[in-house]
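In this supplementary section we document a worked example of the pipeline. Step one takes a protein sequence of length 268 as its only input; no multiple sequence alignment statistics are reported here. Step two produces a three-dimensional model, which step three serialises into structure tokens for compact storage. The input and output of this example are shown verbatim.
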Amino acid sequence: MSKLEEALEKANRLRNSAAIDDKSRKLDVFQNVEPRKIDNDYIVTLTRPDSPIAEEYRRLKSMLIRETKADFLNTIMITSSVNGEGKTLTAVNLAVTLAQEIDHTILLIDADLRKPMIHECLGIKYKYGLSDYLTQDIDISEVLIKTGIGNMVLLPAGRIVKNPVELLSSEKMKALIKELKQRYMDRYIIVDTPPILSCAEGIAIGSYMDGIVFVVREGQAQKKTIEDALSMIQELNILGLVFNNVSAANLDGHYSPYNYGYKHKEKQ
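The serialised model returned by step three reads:
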């Protein structure tokens, strides 16, 4: 049994047991945690679960499951063309909706080592993260954090490094993703990456992801910019496009800056 498998199985056992032995106490990330209260209004799937916006995320979740279930696609990258299009919020809200289902355990990975935001969105403090795991001799159990949000575990970004593209395209990173894919085929792994046109990490990670969800914010990126970004990943498995900030009326008759739509990209 791999170290990764042992670590995640420990997390599951602790969730179902009130007693924590001396050994598990040393692994703070796996101690039982109370359900987390989120005050971030942008995490609408938690703060406004009955809102039309949250319902759009649940629709996105259903579409994602439909696109991936038959072929056992479980590593999903969330990206965009440029900064400011809402990829991180899409990744977090999508992960939350999946984690709220009994049948789905979610690993959310913050692979944006330049501008990590997921831990701030969720109000989580941590000691080690992905970059630390890739550069140091750290056990995987030290970087996995139970979030207290459904069945969701977080692998935060870690310290900011000067060479993120080298780290994220390293053999150790590839081995980590490969092990996750092979050993946890029933577990969705949502990976938030830097924008495609801003840096090379997104393309590097995308090459060993099962699928890509591409976020487009209305009025943010120009059509040519979006086309350029999509052309750079056209050989990869683009599952669909999420349209953020769409000017469409919600069920209450008002317009929302966070309305979402999903468009499947036909395979060529």
